[in-house]
Amino acid sequence: MKVKTILVSQPKPKVENSPYFDLIDRQKVKIDFRSFIHVEGVSSKDVRAQKVDLSKFTAIILTSRNAVDHYFRIAEELRFKVPDSMKYFCLSEAVAYYLQKYVVYRKRKIYVGKRTFSELTSIIKKYKTESFLLPSSDKLKADVPLMMNDLGVSWKEATFYNTVVSDLSDLRDVYYDILVFFSPSGIKSLFENFPNFEQNDTLIAVFGNTTVKAATEQGLRVDIQAPTPETPSMIMALEKYIKAANKK
User: For a disulfide at 33, which of 12, 14, 80, 165, Cβ 3.0-4.6 Å?
Assistant: First the structure.
């Protein structure tokens, strides 16, 4: 079956040079974007209920732009002035760059990991005298607390925002050749919105082992998977499949 339409379960890229747009041009396919999940901030009252006192922490671990936004939102709601001496440990350069929305970058102590949390812990463990706060969603990966506990540092995790299933009811009668997923939450959203979803000829593309597991547990057939040694990105995996399917 030739591939003509793709739905990516993420927001539309804001940058003009996104590889998705290049894929559209190269393979002449239609790609739509739609968030299957979204984030909702918890109240400052709920944060206090988790026994979080922002003044007790000397370092913040930021794993995403959402974590950045909601940490500073809660700080503002609690009228807590984030001290200039605060240390920021960012999961990636993208997160660190986003931090500039709230702080003067060159005047702050900012430490940046490469991409994974395990890579960031190698930096965190050098600062054992700090007290770390990890503002996160309610869907924090299970291995993160294990890695933090292994470091022997003083730290606390607190839920600052929740991952919520988006309303996709307007897609009920819309069909795509490929559905692309990047998280178990995306798979969950599909079946919460469409409990009677039947895959039939729809191709399912997934990124990451946990997403594969979530898809197969729901009885889905995974047709395209990334990362692999041959296709380390979803774009590469999609293009490889489309080339093979569309030349038939």
Answer: 12
Write out the residue range of the structural domain in which residue 49 sits. 40-163
**DSSP secondary structure letter of residue 154:** E
DSSP 3-state percent helix, strand, coil across the chain (nearest 5): 40, 25, 40
C-alpha angle 9/14/18, rounded to 5°?
Answer: 80
- Among the candidates 142, 163, 184, a domain finishes at 163
- Are 37 and 111 in contact by the 8 Å Cβ rule? The answer is no
Residue among 120, 37, 44 nearest 76 (CA): 44
Q: Domain of 21: which CATH number?
A: 3.40.50.10090
Give the CA-trace dihedral at 212, 218, 220, 225, to 10 degrees: -10
Residues 80 and 146 in one domain: yes
**Tokens linked to 186:** 């995306």
pLDDT tens digit sequence for 76-133:
999 999 999 999 999 999 899 999 999 987 767 999 988 789 999 999 999 999 999 9
The DSSP letter of residue 34 is: -
User: Can you read off the two tokens belonging to residue 8?
Assistant: 């990516």
